[in-house]
């Protein structure tokens, strides 16, 4: 398993009168090489959960195991530098953390701090740029002269340059236009499928991630109320409403078509193209059967 949480709780300002528990008894396991979506209403504990995954926060109760590193509540933490190299955390609006005068210097900063040589750091920077679909010529550019979409991808590339095994992203498509959002999700999906990275994405735009995520974790008031596949989530989308979330259009459309045509055993089709193709194939099949029956009566 890439990640395992056992009865994990986290309380802010634990020893003060103003303590607030953000997570309550979370249990889950995430296999390596999967793409995972995390959703929940504001204040459900999503960002707190992400920060537990690379040691920025440590559990106040329970155990967090990431790869071969374990953090237990009440015990002295192991050295966290190896964990932070292997788990890349991309905060919301990561471009706000870019600081160097060129994209290359920004991307090389992390690898150099993790002990890589300048040549190796540049090689990792180039690979990360390509993973994000960016032209290597942009390495010489000032990051603040890039377009919004380019700057977001360059900021994510600065985390990928350290070659993490797990990539954790908090609302990576926030504020991007629809075309840039779709492109970025496609690049992250390729990073998972082709490069074998475990990719974990917190999002409030479930629609854009539903066709690609292998698993979903739904949080409600600091508790995990759902963990499972898209197929399991599609079987009862009303769960999202009970958690204060809007049911994505793709799930509503799939549920309506599945109920009408009796498609409980089918994998959900969560893109317009996929759903249209299924409907056409079903109608074609029905027409063929009607034609066969007609021929038999003649």
What does this structure look like?
It is a single chain. By secondary structure, the protein is an alpha/beta fold. The protein has 2 domains: 3-12 and 20-78 and 166-247, Rossmann fold (3-Layer(aba) Sandwich), CATH 3.40.50; 98-164. It contains 11 helices and 10 strands. The strands form 2 sheets. Strands 6-7-8-3-9-10 form a 6-stranded mixed β-sheet, sandwiched between helices. Strand 4 and strand 5 (69-72) form a beta hairpin. Helix 3 (103-113) packs parallel to helix 5 (148-160) and helix 4 (118-131) packs across helix 5. 37% of the residues are buried. Residues 293-298 have low confidence and may be disordered. Belongs to the ABC transporter superfamily. It comes from Paenibacillus rhizophilus. It is a peripheral membrane protein. Its main location: membrane.
Question: What is the fold's blueprint, element by element?
Answer:
Elements: E1 3-12, E2 20-30, E3 35-40, H1 46-52, E4 61-66, E5 69-72, H2 81-86, E6 87-90, H3 103-113, H4 118-131, H5 148-160, E7 166-170, H6 178-195, E8 198-202, H7 206-209, E9 215-220, E10 223-228, H8 230-235, H9 238-242, H10 249-261, H11 272-297
Parallel strand pairs: 3-8, 3-9, 6-7, 7-8
Antiparallel strand pairs: 1-2, 1-4, 4-5, 9-10
């Amino acid at each position: 398993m890439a990640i395992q949480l056992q009865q994990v709780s986290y309380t802010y300002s634990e020893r003060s009168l103003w303590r607030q528990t953000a997570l309550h008894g979370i249990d889950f396991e995430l296999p390596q090489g999967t793409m995972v979506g995390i959703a929940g209403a504001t204040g459900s504990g999503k960002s707190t959960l992400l920060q537990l995954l690379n040691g920025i926060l440590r559990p106040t109760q329970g155990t967090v195991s990431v790869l071969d590193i374990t953090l237990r509540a009440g015990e002295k933490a192991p050295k966290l530098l190896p964990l932070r190299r292997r788990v890349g955390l991309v905060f919301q609006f990561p471009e706000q953390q870019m600081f160097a005068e060129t994209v290359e210097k920004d991307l090389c900063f992390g690898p150099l701090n993790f002990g890589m040589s300048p040549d190796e750091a540049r090689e990792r920077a180039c690979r990360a740029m390509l993973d994000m679909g960016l032209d290597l010529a942009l390495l010489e550019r000032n990051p603040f002269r890039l377009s919004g979409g380019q700057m977001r991808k360059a900021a994510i590339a600065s985390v990928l340059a350290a070659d993490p095994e797990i990539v954790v992203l908090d609302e990576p498509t926030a504020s991007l236009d629809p075309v840039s959002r779709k492109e970025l999700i496609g690049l992250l999906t390729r990073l998972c499928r082709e490069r074998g990275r475990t990719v974990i994405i917190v999002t409030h735009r479930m629609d854009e991630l539903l066709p690609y995520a292998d698993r979903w974790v739904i949080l409600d008031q600091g508790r995990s109320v759902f963990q499972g596949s898209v197929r399991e989530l599609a079987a009862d989308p009303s769960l999202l409403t009970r958690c204060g979330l809007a049911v994505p259009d793709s799930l509503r459309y799939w549920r309506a078509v599945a109920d009408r045509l009796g498609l409980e055993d089918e994998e959900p089709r969560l893109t317009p193209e996929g759903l249209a193709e299924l409907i056409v194939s079903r109608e074609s099949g029905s027409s063929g059967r009607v034609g066969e029956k007609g021929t038999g009566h003649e």
